[in-house]
Design brief:
297 residues; Rossmann fold; eight-stranded mixed sheet; two-stranded parallel sheet
Length: 297
């Protein structure tokens, strides 16, 4: 099998490469850099693929590329980069693969649980409506571009991913230093729900979606046991043997991080992986503590 990966140098992309290598898949890796060899193809968010004929013969496309949403405040420039990297970038990928003489069988398109926005204690599944904040709006446009691949006859999976647990990147990596220094604590009220996934299970889900042709449309890539921020904080402290008594009040989050803090740190999203559960997918790390222990090992 031949697989194209965009965003191959990121946290998920690198782990996915290892998994595909173990399976014996042939890989084509897309990046902005000049191609080093036949395994690479040049691609940009604005311009698409410089050599699209190299895509002929690709069986599966895994599209992971996108601007990092975390960091400090979302300036207008940052929000434009977040939007364009996902919406325009996906448009360029779908345009290219839709024009191939032999189209790929499967398109795995990255999305995020940000699709659901702020939901309080409501349990949301794949059929739940989208939210109404900035990230939810981006996700709706992002997925609309991805669904155009389905219109072109390519089986399309929209992977709505939660917080990926890894010490090498993402939210957990950012948390580790303050927690190890003993200055970690609850964010805001601590009652907001966090929907997470182990890196191993995220990679397993991508492979499962590739291998099971009956899966298409939105898939919540989260563990079946979401937790509150308070539960997450206590569990991380236990695993690291560190205190967790220094809270970050809601007003401080809003003052320091602005809209980004409200969307990523204070929003409550309790997401259930209904489609994966109904399909019989077995999570390696369904519970938080073993997942964090494995992630920081």
């Amino acid at each position: 099998m031949k697989v194209l990966i965009t965003g191959a140098s990121g946290l998920l992309g690198q782990a996915l490469q290892e998994s595909f290598k173990d399976k014996g898949y042939e890989m084509l890796l897309a990046s902005r850099k000049e191609p080093e060899d036949d395994r690479h193809i040049q691609w940009s968010i604005e311009g698409g693929f410089t050599d699209p004929e190299k895509l002929e013969g690709v069986d599966v496309v895994v599209h992971l590329a996108g601007e990092n949403v975390s960091g400090l405040r979302w300036t207008d420039e940052k929000k434009k980069a977040i939007h364009d990297s996902r919406v325009l970038g996906t448009r360029n990928v779908v345009d290219a693969i839709s024009k191939l003489k032999k189209k790929p069988k499967t398109f795995i398109a990255s999305s995020a649980i940000g699709f659901y926005g702020e939901r309080g204690d409501e349990e949301v599944v794949e059929s739940s409506a989208a939210g109404d904040n900035f990230l939810a709006g981006v996700c709706k446009e992002w997925e609309a571009e991805s669904r155009r691949a389905e219109d072109a006859g390519i089986r399309t999976v929209l992977l709505r991913t939660g917080i990926v647990l890894s010490k090498d990147g993402g939210a957990l990596a950012t948390m580790l230093l303050p927690f190890k220094m003993g200055v970690g604590g609850v964010v805001g009220s601590g009652k907001q729900w966090m929907s997470w996934i182990s890196l191993d299970d995220e990679i397993a889900i991508i492979n499962y979606c590739i291998e099971n042709e009956n899966i298409r449309g939105a898939v919540n890539a989260v563990a079946p046991n979401p937790v509150t921020n308070l539960e997450f904080t206590k569990t991380l402290g236990e695993v690291l043997y560190r205190p967790t008594f220094l809270p970050l009040p809601e007003f401080a989050v809003s003052m320091i991080f602005g809209e980004m803090g409200d969307a990523l740190l204070l929003a409550s999203t309790k997401v259930i992986p209904k489609r994966l559960e109904d399909a019989g997918f077995e999570f390696k790390y369904p519970e938080l503590k073993p997942a964090i222990e494995h992630a920081v090992r």
